[in-house]
Amino acid sequence: MNWIILFVAGLLEVVWAYSMKRSEGFTVVTPSVVTVVAMVASGVLLSFAMRSLPLGTAYTVWTGIGAVGSFVVGLFILGEPASATRIAAATLIVAGILMMKLASA
Fold first, then answer.
1. Phi, psi of 78, rounded to the nearest 5 degrees
2. Spatial distance between the Cα atoms of 95 and 91, rounded to a whole number of angstroms
3. What confidence score (pLDDT) does residue 105 get?
4. How far apart are CA 81 and CA 37, in angstroms?
């Protein structure tokens, strides 16, 4: 169950990153509110997951999901460039997340 909670916390990190981008420096109300709510919810869920998961594993997986998820949102929703180097970097992050998960089994 803690892995599911951690995954949801990571997805909420993607939500707040995207909504922060849309908030235009916290000048647009709705995405600004979404950013703050998603940040708090993500942090709370991360803290729940850390009750039984090691700090290093939980934090690495959480930030990795947020980083790769934000990268994917940037590619497909914001039209950011998809260079081979950026894709390779995201692939390495995913590999690191999987290794941390396997190391915690």
1. -95, -5
2. 6
3. 67
4. 29
Give the whole-angstrom CA distance, residue 71 versus residue 80. 9
- Write the single-letter amino acid at 7: F
H/E stretch holding 87 reads helix 84-103
| Torsion, CA 42, CA 83, CA 97, CA 37, rounded to 10 | 0
Under 8 Å CB-to-CB from 5, ≥6 apart: which residues? 45, 48, 49
- Is residue 6 within 8 A of residue 53, CB to CB? The reply is yes
pLDDT tens-digit series, residues 20-57: 999 999 999 999 999 999 999 999 999 999 999 999 99
pTM to 2 decimal places: 0.90
Alpha carbon separation from 42 to 7, 50, 89 (Å, rounded): 10, 12, 24
Structural tokens at position 73: 């949102």
The pLDDT tens digits for 75-93 are 999 999 999 999 999 999 9
Q: Please report where in the chains the tokens 């934000």 appear, as a residue.
A: 70
